[in-house]
Amino acid sequence: MTNIVVLVKQVPDTYSERKLSESDHTLDRESADAVIDEINERSVEEALKIKEAGEGEVTVLCVGPDRATDAIRKALSMGADKAIHVSDESLHGSDMLATAKVLAAAIGKVEGVDLVIAGNEASDGRGGAVPAMLAELLGLPQLTHVRQLTVEGGSVKADRETEEGITHLEANLPAIVSVTEKINEPRYPSFKGIMAAKKKPVETLTVADLGVDSGEVGLGNAWSTVLEASPKPPRTAGERVEDDGDGGTKVAEYLVAQKLI
Amino acid sequence: MIDFRLGDEYEALRKTVQDFAQNEVAPVIGGFYEREEFPYDLVAGMGRMGLFGLPFPEEFGGMGGDYFALCLALEELARVDSSVAITLEAGVSLGAMPIYRFGSDEQKRRWLPALCAGEALGAFGLTEPGGGSDAGATRTTARLDDGGGDWVINGSKSFITNSGTDITRLVTVTAVTGQKPDGRKEISAIIVPSGTPGFTVAPKYSKVGWNASDTHELSFDDCRVPAGNLLGERGRGYAQFLSILDEGRIAIAALSVGLAQGCVDECLRYVNEREAFGSKIGAYQAIQFKIADMETRAHTARLAYYQAAAKMLRGEPFKKEAAIAKLVSSNAAMDNARDATQVFGGYGFMNEFPVGRFYRDAKILEIGEGTSEVQRMLIARELGLPS
């Protein structure tokens, strides 16, 4: 029986226009459709595969505002068993350190956790450090950038892929794994799963319930501050090379001038 | 009170199928259509999502949903492509539903789990070369052989969807099994497993549209199946079929609304990119009015099929509403396909653009599952006009 916790984050849909709010430079959640982060669908899928290959229980853990329940429902409709939703006004604007502390405390609420599966990096903040911070806080081995995962007995084996190459890792359970988009193709929830999700338990907790000091979280306690934000300038037309039979040479000359080749 | 909001689970299903259609179907379907190839992997994916089991109870491998859930799935699929939508529609309404509705417990246990999983497809053979809307004109015959152990089937069937794929397991055919006391034909439905000797599947048709769906003519030449393959009551084949057809009309209405909405989707994308005479063409009123009309047709047709489905699920008579929904929706699909093609100009006439595919796929909606004329006939009869 593998007891798995999957970290799930609700993010603005990458297809919609995303921006920061003008008042405090945190994410403007109203301006975009909110969806479960795609990488988390893969995290959930991986947990379900492990569960289906043997025995296990999958708990979804999400830190986010009330409307993040939609992301939680999606994970439950895919087949996760239950969920913990940490929702607290004081968390608004929390940085990765604070988020990791809250997640670590919430994981502590689940008895006998064998494996925590997270996405490699959320598509909104793109910090990519929470899994490592969590491993540090919980004193557990971390296997990040994982593109293949096997759980065998009391250990986990993983292929870790970075730009430098592939590393084969092994760790004792419990452990923390973060997966890349290569890990699997997530399933689409079935209607049976969608209906079953309505009846699955979702425990909603506040920061106080977790025993975390609200003075450690939130925008005011973040270790870094966004001073200014401006939208990416629109792409300019670029330089046009007319091909009069010598187009190739002109392109090469341009690249040489830019010291690109 | 009146409330047109979809319930949470319907909305979640609609969204899931929308994601599937956009992410899985849209990128590849053009190629299948061009090659006139049946998209086995997409059908398997739809099966894994449980779409083929939507209206059936869990004990037979279904999803425990209802027919409206199926309609929502059909609409979202057809927004992107009608071939996969009709494959699902026929697989559920014509392949599995007659067995679920009229089959014995043994027949249900034998056939439904694989059909619900989308691992197998069933087909329904009613239409014949000499008779479409006039289903009573059935000429295919089935007689019990001397010992009474087998049905011996002779005849042919036309335009049978899902009848010749690699995963087709059965075709339910209607056949004349005798004469009623009043002299009319006694028509019964009989399950013929694929591969039964004497059952021949002709090469697939070359069709104007729905080119990634599977359609064949079937022939039966002294084809023998066990007497136990009779589906439902002997002599009730035609009546059984008619009851299936009414709900099938709502499904085809949903599919038509999907196509009509897909035309709006494609146009909105295109007119915000395409420029002519110095502006995006979406800025011109001639285009705006066309798209407004298209949206209006899709919207009203959707209301019509939602309402027909609501009556059906409440167990109320819905024959007139189903006919109206089928009529307005197929009109909407046809009109929107024509207008969308016009908005796209020359590109609309190119097969590589979805609207070209929509144009070719729309016409059959005014024909299949009862022509528009048949719908008008039904509506008139429901109004008490003489038949």
Automatic annotation (TrEMBL), chain A:
What InterPro entries does its record include? ETF_a/b_N, ETF_b, ETF_beta_N, Rossmann-like_a/b/a_fold
Q: Where is the Electron transfer flavoprotein alpha/beta-subunit N-terminal domain?
A: 24-214
UniProt cross-references to Pfam families, sorted A to Z: ETF (PF01012)
Q: Which GO terms describe its cellular component?
A: cytosol
Task: Respond yes or no to whether keyword Electron transport is given for this record.
Answer: yes
**GO MF:** electron transfer activity
Superkingdom of origin organism: Bacteria
Q: Which UniProt keywords apply?
A: Electron transport, Transport
UniProt cofactor(s)? FAD
Subunit structure as annotated in this protein's UniProt entry: Heterodimer of an alpha and a beta subunit.
Family the entry assigns = Belongs to the ETF beta-subunit/FixA family.
Described by its record, this protein's role is as follows:
The electron transfer flavoprotein serves as a specific electron acceptor for other dehydrogenases. It transfers the electrons to the main respiratory chain via ETF-ubiquinone oxidoreductase (ETF dehydrogenase).
**Name of the protein described by the UniProt record:** Electron transfer flavoprotein subunit beta
Record organism: Prauserella muralis
Automatic annotation (TrEMBL), chain B:
Q: One Pfam annotation, family name?
A: Acyl-CoA_dh_M
Judging by the UniProt lineage, the source's domain of life is Bacteria
Molecular function terms from GO: acyl-CoA dehydrogenase activity; flavin adenine dinucleotide binding
Q: Which cofactor does it need?
A: FAD
Q: Which InterPro entries match?
A: Acyl-CoA_DH_CS, Acyl-CoA_Oxase/DH_mid-dom, Acyl-CoA_Oxase/DH_mid-dom_sf, AcylCo_DH-like_C, AcylCo_DH/oxidase_C, AcylCoA_DH/ox_N, AcylCoA_DH/ox_N_sf, AcylCoA_DH/oxidase_NM_dom_sf
What the entry lists under Gene3D superfamilies is as follows:
Acyl-CoA dehydrogenase/oxidase, N-terminal domain, Butyryl-CoA Dehydrogenase, subunit A, domain 2, Butyryl-CoA Dehydrogenase, subunit A, domain 3
Keywords annotated in UniProt: FAD, Flavoprotein, Oxidoreductase
Q: Which family does it belong to?
A: Belongs to the acyl-CoA dehydrogenase family.
Q: Which PANTHER family does the UniProt record give?
A: ACYL-COA DEHYDROGENASE, ISOVALERYL-COA DEHYDROGENASE, MITOCHONDRIAL-RELATED
Q: What is this protein called?
A: Acyl-CoA dehydrogenase
Q: What is the lineage of its organism?
A: Bacteria, Bacillati, Actinomycetota, Actinomycetes, Pseudonocardiales
